[in-house]
Design brief:
Protein name: Cysteine dioxygenase
Organism: Aphanomyces astaci (Crayfish plague agent)
CATH topology: Jelly Rolls
Strand content: 25-35%
Pfam family, one: PCO_ADO
Helix content: 10-25%
Structural class: alpha+beta
Keywords: Iron, Metal-binding, Oxidoreductase
Radius of gyration: 21 Å
Low-confidence stretches: 1-46, 92-97, 221-238, 288-303
Number of strands: 12
GO molecular function: metal ion binding; oxidoreductase activity, acting on single donors with incorporation of molecular oxygen, incorporation of two atoms of oxygen
Distance between the termini: 30 Å
CATH class: Mainly Beta
Order of helices and strands: EEEHHEEEHEEEEHHEE
CATH superfamily: Jelly Rolls
Number of domains: 1
């Protein structure tokens, strides 16, 4: 996903005050706008919708910090605005400036990561369970598998839940949270905190979630800027592709509050993961003509 922007649509706007009952989908609906999110250059309007104020604050922060993941101080600034966002501030089933996920009851957005990204999520209505993880540092992951190797070979773990060879593709992760979040509420994840998460819609009405992602997913950007960017900056730009995970089982390690689990990564989502895009019909957004830091044309030498 990238920072997304609104398509113009002349259709009548429908207030988003409750989940739509007439949409039937096998999994969940992913509604998003479709143009690139960028910097505002025109004069600000005298009055702005709250959703436009959120967009402007995000753009200003991205411009100020060079397109890197937001730090906690920057997150709090955006959260203060998001805390005021209600369904009545939006229309139909989408929200400007980033995706909104509309999830029928019992559906799941599968476990996935946000490499070197910050995400602010506003639960507009309903409730969701958030299962959040972080991968352990590489040296701790290696030490875990060294300790396990002999026990794996001896089949000490039963029911064939581990292969009998060293499973180098598997990852050890700390479970950070299994909280249920009741809307309206705003949450966040950081590059090093709750970065891998899963959403499960609970309750009778499902939920809708407005997301702000910064910087957006971009798996190919590193090859475009490597010749012109300092190596210590590449960690903020390279490899921002979405990886999905499957939680296999709990293992020894961690604490009672933050146990360790083994996760199996995949480049593809589960086959049950289905999304439907719907057009944006909310408040008009400012056009984006200036390239954001993730654009090829904005790559310049930092020296």
């Amino acid at each position: 996903m990238k920072w997304l922007f609104a398509e113009e649509d002349d259709a009548a706007a429908t207030p988003l005050s409750s989940p739509r009952k007439d949409i039937g989908v096998p999994a969940y609906i992913l509604s998003r706008v479709s143009q690139r999110f960028g910097y505002r250059t025109a004069a600000e309007p005298v009055e702005m919708h709250l959703i436009q104020s959120i967009q402007q604050a995000v753009l200003q922060t991205v411009k100020r910090n060079g397109g890197r993941a937001f730090n906690m101080a920057e997150v709090l600034e955006i959260k203060e605005l998001c805390d005021r966002l209600l369904p009545s501030d939006c229309t139909i089933v989408v929200v400007v400036a980033s995706p909104i996920f509309v999830m029928p009851p019992g559906t799941t957005i599968p476990l996935h990561n946000h490499p070197q990204m910050t995400v602010i999520s506003r639960v507009l209505y309903g409730s969701m369970q958030v299962n959040a993880f972080d991968l352990v540092p590489p040296d701790e992951d290696e030490a875990f598998w060294v300790r396990k190797e002999e026990r794996i070979r001896k089949a000490e773990i039963h029911h064939n839940r581990f292969p009998k060879f060293r499973p180098r593709h598997l990852k050890v992760a700390i479970q950070r949270s299994t909280d249920v979040v009741h809307g309206p509420a705003t949450t966040e994840l950081l590059p090093d905190r709750c970065n891998i998460h899963e959403f499960i819609a609970v309750g009778d009405v499902g939920c809708a979630i407005f997301d702000i992602l910064t910087p957006g997913y971009n798996p190919l950007y590193a090859c475009l800027v490597a010749a012109n960017t300092r190596s210590d900056d590449l960690m903020y730009r390279a490899g921002r592709d979405c990886t999905y995970y499957r939680s296999l089982l709990q293992v020894e390690g961690g604490t009672e509050e933050e146990p360790w689990y083994v996760l199996e990564p995949s480049n593809l989502p589960p086959s049950s993961f289905i999304s439907v895009d719907l057009p944006y019909r909310g408040p008009e957004l400012m056009p984006a003509h200036v390239a954001a830091p993730d654009d090829e044309h904005s790559a310049t030498s930092s020296e």
